[in-house]
């Protein structure tokens, strides 16, 4: 797992994570699962608080969430009636061979140790099954969003994602990429609440946290697109990577 300290930092903020993190647009989920029979047997790997799980359940699928952080698993159970996550990781999935029609990952694939994770995902998938990591990436073509990223050290822009994660190894076919427009409406305080669920903020010193918060408040007070507004629309590009198991 890449940087386990950061990767496992979210449990302390699980309730805020579930409240403030963006959902996934239905069109993106349907594209990820194009060609997968419905209702499908799905694994939500690195399921967090169940944001992706609930989106998939709403489409009528069977979903098994897998999540290493006990705080996140507890929040998933509380927020997703009738569903509990299995304790496990991308590198050690507690499911039998060929269990899943598809494995999806919401906002977590960048934490995986990719080579062993690819082998585990291929093992869990049926032949021809789909692997689809998904990211909600802030649309930094919007000036104030780019400035927010700089102030808060968010550092997960679309270019990084598309360049780093376009190959899932020899067990998978060529990767297809889908992109979908998405947005959430937040007050300035809710934007801060969302930033307080980010790994950089959660693992930062008290001084760095205060500096980030002060910078974000200054941005909302001074930027011409933000000043005086009670709520803003935070735009995202939802990126879906889709591949089939060979």
Topology at a glance:
Blueprint: H1 4-7, H2 14-20, H3 26-32, E1 41-45, H4 51-58, E2 62-67, H5 70-79, E3 86-87, E4 100-106, H6 114-124, E5 125-138, H7 143-152, H8 158-164, E6 176-186, H9 188-195, H10 199-202, H11 206-222, E7 232-244
Parallel strand pairs: 1-2, 1-4, 2-3, 4-5
Antiparallel strand pairs: 5-7, 6-7
Helix pairs in contact: 2-9, 7-11
Summarize the structure.
Helix content is 38%, strand content 24%.
Protein architecture, described:
By secondary structure, the chain is an alpha/beta fold. The chain contains eleven helices and seven strands. It has helices at 4-7, 14-20, 26-32, 51-58, 70-79, 114-124, 143-152, 158-164, 188-195, 199-202, 206-222, and strands at residues 41-45, 62-67, 86-87, 100-106, 125-138, 176-186, 232-244. Strands 3-2-1-4-5-7-6 form a seven-stranded mixed beta sheet, with helices on both faces. The chain starts with a helix and ends with a strand. The mean pLDDT is 92.
What topology, given as strand order, has the largest sheet?
Answer: 3-2-1-4-5-7-6
Structural class: alpha/beta
What value does the Rg take, in angstroms?
18 Å
Number of strands: 7
Low-confidence regions? none
Query: How many distinct helices?
Result: 11
| Helix and strand element order | HHHEHEHEEHEHHEHHHE
């Amino acid at each position: 797992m890449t940087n386990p300290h950061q990767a496992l930092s979210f449990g302390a903020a699980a309730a805020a994570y579930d409240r403030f993190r963006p959902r996934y647009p239905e069109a993106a989920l349907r594209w990820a699962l194009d060609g997968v029979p419905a209702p499908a047997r799905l694994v939500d790997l690195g399921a967090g608080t169940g944001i992706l799980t609930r989106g998939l359940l709403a489409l009528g699928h069977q979903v098994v969430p897998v999540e290493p952080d006990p705080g996140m698993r507890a929040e998933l159970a509380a927020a997703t009636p009738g569903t509990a996550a299995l304790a496990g990781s991308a590198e050690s999935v507690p499911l039998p061979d060929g269990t899943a029609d598809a494995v999806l990952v919401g906002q977590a694939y960048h934490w995986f140790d990719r080579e062993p994770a690819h082998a585990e995902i291929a093992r869990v998938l049926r032949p021809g099954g789909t692997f689809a990591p998904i990211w909600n990436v802030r649309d930094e073509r919007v000036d104030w969003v780019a400035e927010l990223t700089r102030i808060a050290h968010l550092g997960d822009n679309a270019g990084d994602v598309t360049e780093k994660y376009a190959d899932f190894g020899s067990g998978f076919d060529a990767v297809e990429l889908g992109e979908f427009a998405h947005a959430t409406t937040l007050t300035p305080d809710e934007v801060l609440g969302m930033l307080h669920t980010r790994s950089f903020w959660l693992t930062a010193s008290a001084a760095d946290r205060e500096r980030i918060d002060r910078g974000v408040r200054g941005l909302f007070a001074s930027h011409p697109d933000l000043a005086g507004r009670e709520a803003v629309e935070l735009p995202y590009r939802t990126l879906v990577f889709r591949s089939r198991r060979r």
